[in-house]
Amino acid sequence: AEVAERIAAGEVIERPASVVKELVENALDAGAREIRVEIRDGGLRLIRVSDDGQGIPEEDLERACARHSTSKIVRVEDLEHLQTLGFRGEALASIAAVSELTLLSRPIESEERGQEEPAAWITVRGGELVQRGHRARPHGTTVTVRELFYNVPARLKFMRSARSEAGQILQLLNHYAAGYPSVRFNLSIEEQSLLQTSGSGDLAIALAELYRLPLAELLIPIEVTDEEGIRIFGYVGNRVLAQPNRQHVMLFINGRPVQVRALQEALEAGYRPLLAKGRHPLLVLHLQLPAQEVDANVHPAKTEVRLRRERELATLLTRSVRAVLERSPA
Ligand code: ADP
Ligand code: MG
Asked: 173 alpha carbon to ligand 2 midpoint, in Å?
């Protein structure tokens, strides 16, 4: 790949966890009910994400790996009402520019047509198509990324240990599994299964599966609807689950995991007076806002969002969290 292309790729793909994030989001956008993630050597040797989503027709495989090609935006107006997690068409191209990426896929329609139409695959290395072929698989898509950053030595040097990269990936999957309780997630790191959810659709069950706790007594539901059409729902863990870090404070806006400084602070203002100093709860909150209240088109990594009524939301969050924790037994 061109040097400029590798630099551009670096903006979206900083580390193995960024690859996993993009591939999981693609699987979710494809309507997957099951997503399996496999990691070796902290993701530098191998990242594989398989889904049972709608798949990609063979004639679109190459285009999917090209820059600025997305199948997700039909009209400019769609930017205002984004329903998908991806929309820039950069992720696969960026990953393929700095690794060896194999995209194997079989569309649902092809499966319906029967055995004689197998799945197709292409391998792109450093942005160049190097091989293609066919093989059997049920509908869905598998993306395998090998030798990440093999052609970006400067980036490789900055990678932390495989263990710390794997830790980030585990945290990321935890977030998505809490965000999408109706999807079955499975994460295996160095051939060990570290996370599994059943896709029951019930957030409390997903949290119980993620944290392996008798959560019925330990999770307190939050459910608030205001007159502006804003809905807040989720769970706060009982105070005994409080942690010395913010890892388990998770906020989702319209299903998208987000980092919004003001809202994060608003949550903290809600729980701080009720917990021991420096402690943070298990807190999983989903905000459902009318799509036009949210502008996700801010940063390629997309965990930042801009909100039209951030102040009001912040107040609502602080109040809701405080009210619920006050009622919880200490
Ligand atoms: P974006 O998600 O912004 O559209 P990507 O580079 O992540 O861009 O993906 C490019 C295109 O490849 C997508 O628009 C989609 O059509 C297709 N694609 C990628 N991953 C999958 C997947 N897991 N299942 C089905 N289609 C996929
Ligand atoms: Mg994408």
From this structure: 16
DSSP 53: S
**Cα(195) to centroid(ligand 1), Å:** 24
The whole-angstrom separation of Cα 239 and Cα 280 is: 9
| pTM, full prediction | 0.88
Output the CA torsion sign for 82, 83, 88, 91.
Answer: positive
- Predicted complex ipTM exceeds 0.85: yes
Q: Whose CA is nearest to atom 25 of ligand 1?
A: 55
Query: Does residue 302 carry a pLDDT above 60?
Result: no
Is the distance from CB of 67 to CB of 105 less than 8 angstroms? no
How far apart are the CA of 324 and the centre of ligand 1, in A?
A: 40
Show the domains of the chain with their CATH numbers. Answer: 3-196 (3.30.565.10), 214-327 (3.30.230.10)
The packing angle between helices 16-29 and 162-179, to 10°, is 20
Nearest ligand for residue 107 CA? 1
